[in-house]
Amino acid sequence: MAPTRPDRLSPAMSAAVALLASGALLPALAVLGELRPGPVPLAAYAALCAALGRSSRPVAAPLIGFAAWLFHNGFVEHRHGVLGWSGLSTEAVRFLVLAVPALLLALPGSLPRPALSAPRDRGRRHRTA
User: Fold this and answer.
1) pLDDT tens digits, 78-122
2) Which of 58, 72, 84, 121 could cross-link with 106 by S-S, CB 3.0 to 4.6 Å?
3) Cβ-contact 14, 62 below 8 angstroms
4) CA-CA distance, 69 to 65, in Å (whole number)?
């Protein structure tokens, strides 16, 4: 098992933060008058997922996307917290629009860091006194 990086949220913590942040985004969308189906709320949730993905591990991307999908579906698409189903292809595209940004921003942070090393001697000979 690969060592975990301390600067990345665990998948469970990423999901919890995604649920809280998705709920916190709703009042902002309501003030803007965007609690209705359309591209603006979906883009706002995708941006939220990307921001959360930047501090999460790649394995958490589906959890982040699902948490955002729950709030988008329940409060933007179908209102009053009632989940609805618009068909497999429609809901799959919405889920991917939310999960892929989280994954794309989580991937670079999961790469191993290069070890810091001393500068190379690039063929120069050091003179000793």
Assistant:
1) 988 899 999 999 999 999 999 999 999 999 877 776 766 555 656
2) 58
3) no
4) 6
Q: Check: CB of residue 64 under 8 Å from CB of residue 52.
A: yes
23-49: burial string, b at 16+ Cβ within 10 Å, e else = eebbeebeeeebbeeeeebbebbbebb
Q: Among 39, 53, 46, 48, which residue's Cα sits nearest to residue 20?
A: 48
Using DSSP, state whether 119 is helix, strand or coil. Answer: coil
Residue 38, Ramachandran bin (φ over 0: left; ψ between -120 and 50: alpha; else beta)? left
pTM: 0.81
Distance, in Å, from the CA atom of 12 to the CA atom of 129, rounded to the nearest integer, reads 60
